[in-house]
């Protein structure tokens, strides 16, 4: 299991050399994967450093991008990619005012630093003055390697970015999203107890509140679910449940798992979106909704099983 650290000084506890991938890693797309691979393949401890909240949220909140992955989901994906330890640096005005050289010195004196890996365009420190050239200079002085990873492009030669992932999610282009991520798009969360209306209709669901700010358009999807290592197919409704809940204010992810009837409240699920079946819409009655759910299940089973 990936280990989580909350302060740079906590790096002292890691066995060296510490090979550190640095970035925001929102969405953990193929470009991020290249940065991660460069440290996970080295001898020593493969670690990643990210910031929370997103620096733009502190420096210019109105321009902050919508969050694709929650911090917990990001940690989960990084762990699957070979990262052994995630250092989450709290980002605030004090950190924003820190000079780039001071930031690097703080890291390098906290552990046996073997290598720092970043994307070639990565900027850090006060006024974004820190860059790959500065890192390499400091690495020469302080005895650690620096690896700059070139942008990763898609088959059309366009650079893969979190901005492009957000744009594809906005229009529900699952094929594009999976191509940018290098895996199926997923949401991650803890199953919470609901009103059990799905069970009363004959279709029990696992209810997962949405925490990420960016997701697919509301609708019904064929999905695959990773239940702490157990893979199960299902159908999911992402949205506001207009037929049965007129007071709901936040979107909810409801997942009906095929051939499954166990109590999983409090368990963590990662829900992978395979195919869109239809838009979310209201129905004139619960019976009409029940009939449509039966059709949705049949559609999803034909797509994922």
Please tell me about this protein's structure.
Strands 1-4-3-2-5-6 form a six-stranded parallel beta sheet, sandwiched between helices. It has 305 residues and is an alpha/beta fold. It is elongated and about 70 Å long. The chain folds into two domains: 147 residues, Rossmann fold, CATH 3.40.50; 120 residues, Elongation Factor Tu (Ef-tu), domain 3 (Beta Barrel). The chain has ten helices and twelve strands. It starts with a strand and ends with a helix. 33% of the residues are buried. The model has no long low-confidence stretch (mean pLDDT 92). Helix 5 packs across helix 6 and helix 7 runs antiparallel to helix 8.
Distance between the termini: 30 Å
Instruction: Evaluate the radius of gyration.
Output: 22 Å
Structural class: alpha/beta
Largest sheet geometry: 6 strands, parallel
CATH topology label of the largest domain? Rossmann fold
Mean pLDDT: 92
For the record, what CATH class of the largest domain applies? Alpha Beta
According to DSSP, the number of beta strands is 12
Domain count: the total is 2
User: Could you state the order of secondary-structure elements as H and E?
Assistant: EEHEHHEHHEHEHHEHEEEEEH
Question: Which architecture name of the largest domain does CATH use?
Answer: 3-Layer(aba) Sandwich
Instruction: Tell me the quaternary state.
Output: single chain
* Number of discrete helical segments: 10
Question: Can you tell me the CATH superfamily of the largest domain?
Answer: HUPs
Helix-residue proportion: 25-40%
Shape by Cα distribution: elongated
């Amino acid at each position: 299991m990936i280990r989580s650290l909350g302060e740079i000084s906590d790096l002292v506890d890691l066995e060296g050399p510490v090979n550190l991938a640095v970035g925001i890693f929102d969405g953990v797309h193929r470009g991020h994967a290249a940065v991660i691979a460069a440290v996970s393949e080295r001898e020593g401890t493969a670690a990643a450093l990210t910031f929370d909240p997103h620096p733009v949220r502190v420096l210019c909140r109105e321009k902050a991008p919508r969050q694709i992955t929650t911090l917990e989901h990001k940690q989960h994906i990084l762990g699957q990619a070979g990262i052994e330890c995630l250092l989450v640096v709290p980002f605030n005005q004090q950190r924003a005012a820190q000079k780039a050289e001071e930031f690097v010195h703080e890291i390098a004196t906290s552990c046996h630093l073997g290598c720092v890996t970043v994307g070639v365009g990565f900027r850090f420190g006060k006024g974004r003055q820190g860059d790959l050239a500065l890192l390499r200079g400091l690495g020469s002085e302080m005895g650690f390697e620096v690896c700059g990873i070139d942008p990763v492009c898609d088959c059309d030669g366009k650079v893969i970015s979190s901005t492009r992932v957000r744009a594809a999610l906005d229009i529900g282009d699952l094929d594009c999203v999976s191509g940018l991520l290098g895996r199926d798009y997923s949401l991650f969360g803890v199953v919470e107890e609901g009103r059990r209306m799905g069970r009363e209709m004959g279709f029990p669901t696992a209810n997962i509140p949405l925490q990420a700010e960016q997701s697919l358009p509301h609708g019904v999807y064929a999905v695959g679910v990773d239940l702490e290592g157990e893979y199960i197919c299902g159908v999911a409704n992402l949205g506001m449940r207009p037929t049965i809940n007129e007071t709901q204010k936040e979107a909810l992810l409801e997942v009906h798992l095929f051939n499954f009837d166990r109590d999983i409240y409090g368990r963590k699920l990662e829900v992978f979106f395979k195919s869109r079946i239809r838009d979310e819409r209201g129905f004139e009655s619960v019976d009409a909704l029940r009939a449509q759910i039966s059709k949705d299940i049949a559609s999803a089973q034909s797509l994922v099983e």
